[in-house]
Please model this.
Amino acid sequence: MTPPGARAADGDPAVSLSKKEAGKGGEITVSGSGWRSDALLMLLICGQSSPERGVIGGTNSCANADGRAVTTDKKGAFSKRLPVTEPPKPCPCVVHVATVTGEEALADAAFTVAGHPTADLPRPGGDGKLAVLATTRLAGDSSLLTWFGAPPARRLVLTVGNLGSDPVEDPVFEIGTAHGVYAPQWEERQWRGTVAPGGKARIELPVELSGGAHGDYQVSLRYGDKVLAEQPWGVGRPWGVTLFWVLLCLVVPAAVFRIGMAVVDKVRPRPADAHRLRRPTATPAVIARTKTKTNANTATATNATTAVLPWFTPDSAPSENRPRPTTKGQA
Model:
C-alpha cells in the first residue's frame, strides 16, 4: 500500500512513496499528482528536512549526484524509481520534488534512510530574521566578451542585519532575474558565514544572465518567503554580434558572386575564331629569350657598321682634303 504523500493544501502538487524507510543501496518508487502537464521535475533525497519546514539549507542538504529527473504526463502525474542514498545532512529526511523550469512548485514526503545519522532540526528562531540595512547595488563591469554575446555577470552587494535572537549560519538566499512581464527565475545562492543576533554582515552574491541577454532586467533577493531587495539592471545590446552578422551578410554574397562569375567564365562556350582574336600571352622564359636574341642582333649590326666605316689617317686622306704643298715661286 502506498503511504500518503505530502500536500500543503488542497490543489497543491502531491508526492507519495512506495516505502517510508529503506537503506542505502535500495530503491523506492516516487509517484505524484496535481503537477503541471509536461513539467520537468527533479527528485532528491534531502537531510535536515521535514514536510512542514521544507528543506533547511536548500539543495546543499540533498544527495544531488543521485537525483532523478522525470516529466509529468498530460494529467500532471508521474511515477519514477529513485535509488536510496545518504544525504550530506543527518535525518529527518524527505524526498524533495520540485520543478526545474517554469513556474516554481515543490512538495516533500517524509522518508527515513535506514542507518543514516539523525539529529534535531535547527531551531526556527533565526530563520527569516534577516533584513537589509543599506541600499543594494550591482558591482562589476562588462567585459569585451559580453559585447560579443557572453553572459553578463554582476555581484549583488548588500548589507544585512540579524533582527532575531538566534544566530543565522550559512543562510541560503534566492536570486531571481525577471525580464519584462515574465516572472523571475529563482536560483539558490548560499553565503558562508554567521550573522550574530543584532549583528550585520556585508554579503556579495553572483548574478548571471544567459548569453546574448540585453534590455531591462529586475534582480530580486529573497530569503525564506520574504523578498529583501530589488535592483534594476540595464543590460546593453551585444553590438559585436550584430556587427558580425552584418559583415557576414556582406562578405558571403560577394564571395558567392565572384565564385559564380569564375565558374560562368570557365564553362561558357568560345567562338570558333576566338584563338585568332586573342593574343597569346608569352611566358617569362620566352620573353627572356626574345630580349637576348634582340640584344645579340643589335650588337652584330653595330659591329658590321663599325667594320665598314672608313677610318682615315693623315697619309691616306683624299687629295682634296690634303693641304697643298707650297712651291717656291708660288704665292
Q: What stands out?
A: Residues 1-10, 304-309 have pLDDT under 50 and may be disordered. The helical segments are 144-147, 239-267, 274-277, 284-308. The CA atoms of residues 35 and 76 lie 4 Å apart.
